[in-house]
Specification:
Helices cover 41% and strands 18% of the residues. The chain has four domains: 186 residues, HUPs (Rossmann fold, 3-Layer(aba) Sandwich); 104 residues, Methionyl-trna Synthetase, domain 2; 137 residues, Isoleucyl-tRNA Synthetase, Domain 1 (Orthogonal Bundle), CATH 1.10.730; 103 residues, Nucleic acid-binding proteins (OB fold (Dihydrolipoamide Acetyltransferase, E2P)), CATH 2.40.50. By secondary structure, the chain is an alpha/beta fold. Strand 11 and strand 12 form a beta hairpin. Bound molecules: 5'-O-[(L-methionyl)-sulphamoyl]adenosine. 5'-O-[(L-methionyl)-sulphamoyl]adenosine (MSP) binds next to strand 2, helix 1, helix 9 and strand 13.
Length: 665
């Protein structure tokens, strides 16, 4: 049988695990369990991403070495995976020698093949923030600090720029770095994706990647000088450099398969689950690294959506995270696993609310499947001496139920192959609901009363078989509860056969407490520990999460006269449309009604923090008398006000609704 390899992203070791991380990992676990259950040799990899400046800084602050810090922090992920019953086959940490060895071997190979070259890398360097900023970022921060427009040209002509993070001065610095010839793989990437349309799913995401590949691909900087960032993997041919985030991180999926060598057989069958935020890295970057390494790309990269709270991506930097531990305490691990997979089609975004969770818990788990299994063991206890009754003569109704079992399990199977958990579970629920209806229509209590013991036995046997089938299929989603219920029926392992003669006749059946207990209200513990979500919470940047600016170190501010301020004309504007800039990842192109005859086009550097869709319909504040400027080929007829410097934390909106074009002063 073809092997099956499933991976999750390796999570940043610094972050506390939240529902978003749990989501990908539960999904991968459900798939791994499903394929194991079907006898496919399966390998499931997860792990932690442990290098980089953030880890180095956090460790320094705490007086630890980065390694000590990573050793302490990665355990939080392992502990959560244990609570969530995640059966991974390997947990890779990028600081492990096996990973370092592989990355260095690969770098050496690419170097010898001429895939890597050294070139200057220039930008505005902030010593206080220890990072580079672009022209636009520094110009925007400097304009805010000086209270007047500043262009990139001004910065190169003597105006002292300030660091958007710290407000201290920046300097133009050129350093040499190592680049990977990614541009050389553009055509091959396009051809590969065209030949293997299934390699990026869902289809809409594949089209996005193809869209990205329509513009010329640049080469990729893969190093940092050790003098600036030491917490990385040294380049074997230039040890004064370390390799930089994505090259190090992506390689984990293959470095974990090096030992023992038999693991390598899994690679071509890889299904890689990722959040939509890191799809470009997992396709454009990753596939070209693999081409250069002489390996085939994974069979499929599947990008799922985000869990949102009040419309914003759940993320630590916003503070709107749901803590998985609290949910497990309140509902149990299986309920959380079920909710994550059943609530939203895999690929789409989902709003997380406690009300929705409670509703699903009560309806799907307590009422439907929980009630079914409870009835299946309580009735034999009352009337049949708690044993599995024999299969009797099947009526039309029995055969219909049997047909539903075949149909529902086939639907489950087909949808699991498509990585569509919600549809798979809905398919299975057809059987669960039919099982409950069957009990109602066959009325075993009446059969018992009338003394029709043979028919009573047949009916209850059919019900038990339905429970056996439902909980066997559910074993990949709710493993603990499935184990418990199957054990009550005398089974030590799931049995996926949809026919009604699989249980052992005469085997004892044990009746115990309901498997999912209905709850009347959202558990107190969740209500009181819920984070307060600021109404203007920004969306975290896909690649680099928004961080609140460090303690505001106010840059020296030049004072102006009121007349100067009065020169700036501000008005409210209603966002009519919002799209990504075709030529710049950081920019969005908006059309905004500012009360004039025609809406204005405004180009804003907020793509990292806002999804275009969420801006439509928002009222913003616009500088309406700024000279139009072309930004990457599109003329911007104004500027939006935003808080947070160049790392935009939030665009500004009026406190109360106002008509478009209202004067702001
Ligand atoms: N370390 C990189 C990944 C390197 S993989 C070679 C990284 N780590 S992360 O800790 O930020 O985790 C990213 C992944 O966590 C996302 O791709 C997604 O799988 C999951 N999620 C984090 N927040 C999420 C939501 N709010 N909703 C759904 N999943 C999200 O990026």
């Amino acid at each position: 049988m073809r092997p099956f390899y499933v991976t999750t992203p390796i999570y940043y070791v610094n972050d506390a695990p939240h529902i978003g991380h749990a989501y990908t990992t539960v999904a991968a676990d459900a798939l791994a369990r499903w394929h194991r259950l079907n006898g496919r040799p399966t390998f499931f990899l997860t792990g932690t991403d442990e290098h980089g400046q953030k880890v180095q800084r956090a460790a320094e602050k705490l007086g630890r070495t980065p390694q000590e810090h990573a050793d302490l922090m990665h355990v939080r992920f392992k502990a959560l995976w244990e609570r969530l019953d995640i059966q991974y086959d390997d947990f890779i940490r990028t600081t492990e020698p096996r990973h370092t060895r592989f990355v260095q071997g690969l770098l050496q190979k690419l170097y010898e093949q001429g895939e890597l070259y050294q070139a200057p890398y220039s930008g505005w360097y902030s010593t206080s923030a220890e990072r580079f900023w672009s022209d636009e970022e520094v110009a925007a921060a400097t304009a805010l600090a000086l209270g007047k427009p500043v262009t990139a040209e001004d910065l190169h002509n003597g105006v002292v720029g300030v660091c958007p993070d710290t407000g201290s001065g920046v300097e133009w610095l050129t350093e040499h770095n190592w680049f990977f010839r990614m541009s050389a793989y553009q055509d091959r990437l396009i051809a590969h994706i065209a030949e293997h349309p299934g390699c990026i799913q869902p289809d809409t995401r594949r089209n996005e990647v193809l869209g990205y590949l329509r513009k010329p691909l640049s080469d990729l900087c893969i190093s940092r000088p050790k003098s600036r960032l030491s917490w990385g993997i040294p380049l074997p041919f230039a040890p004064e450099y370390v390799t930089y985030v994505w090259f190090d991180a992506l390689t984990n999926y293959v470095s974990a398969l090096q030992e023992p060598p038999s693991r390598l057989a899994f690679w071509p069958e890889a299904l890689q689950l990722v959040g939509k935020d890191i799809l470009t890295f997992h396709t454009v970057y990753w596939f070209s690294f693999l081409f250069a390494a002489g390996l085939t790309p994974p069979k499929q990269v599947y990008a799922h959506g985000w869990w949102l709270m009040t419309g914003k991506k759940m993320s630590k930097s916003i503070g709107n995270v749901i803590k998985p531990d609290a949910m497990i305490d309140a509902y149990g691990a299986d309920a959380l696993r079920y909710f994550l997979l059943a609530a939203v089609p895999f690929g789409g975004d989902g709003e997380f609310t406690h009300e929705a969770f409670l509703h699903r818990f009560n309806s799907d788990l307590a009422n439907d499947v929980g009630n079914l299994s409870h009835r299946a063991t309580s009735m034999p206890e009352k009337w049949l001496g708690s044993v599995v009754p024999p299969v009797g003569v099947q009526t039309d109704e029995d055969l219909e139920l049997q047909a539903v079992a075949v149909r529902a399990t086939a639907a489950f199977r087909a949808n699991m192959d498509l990585v569509q958990f919600k549809a798979a579970l809905e398919g299975l629920w057809e059987l669960v609901r039919a099982g409950n209806k069957y009990i109602d229509s066959q009325a075993p209590w009446a059969l018992n009363k009338r003394g029709e013991t043979a028919r009573l036995g047949t009916v209850l046997r059919n019900v038990m078989e339905v429970v056996r089938i439902a909980y066997s299929y559910l074993a990949c989603v709710t493993p603990q509860k499935s184990r418990e219920v199957l054990d009550r029926l005398g089974l030590s392992a799931p049995d996926l056969d949809p026919t009604f003669d699989r249980l052992v006749t005469g085997h004892p059946v044990s009746h115990r407490d309901p498997i999912f207990l209905r709850l009347d209200a959202i558990p107190e513990s969740l209500v009181s520990t819920d984070p307060v979500v600021p109404t203007t919470a920004p969306v975290a940047a896909p690649a680099a999460p928004v961080t609140a600016p460090a303690a505001p170190v106010a840059a020296p501010v030049a004072q102006i006269e009121y007349e100067d301020f009065a020169k700036v004309q501000l008005r409210t504007g209603l966002v009519l449309t919002a799209d990504k800039h075709p030529k710049a990842d950081r920019l969005l192109v908006l059309t905004v009604d500012v009360g004039e005859e025609k809406p204005r086009t405004i180009v804003a550097g907020i793509a990292a923090v806002y999804d275009p869709v969420e801006l439509v319909g928002k009222t913003v504040i616009v500088v309406v008398n700024l000279k139009p400027a072309k930004l990457r080929g599109i003329e911007s007829q104004g500027m939006l006000l935003a808080a947070g410097g160049s790392d935009v934390a939030s665009i500004l909106t009026p406190y109360r609704p106002v008509v478009p074009g209202s004067i702001v002063k």
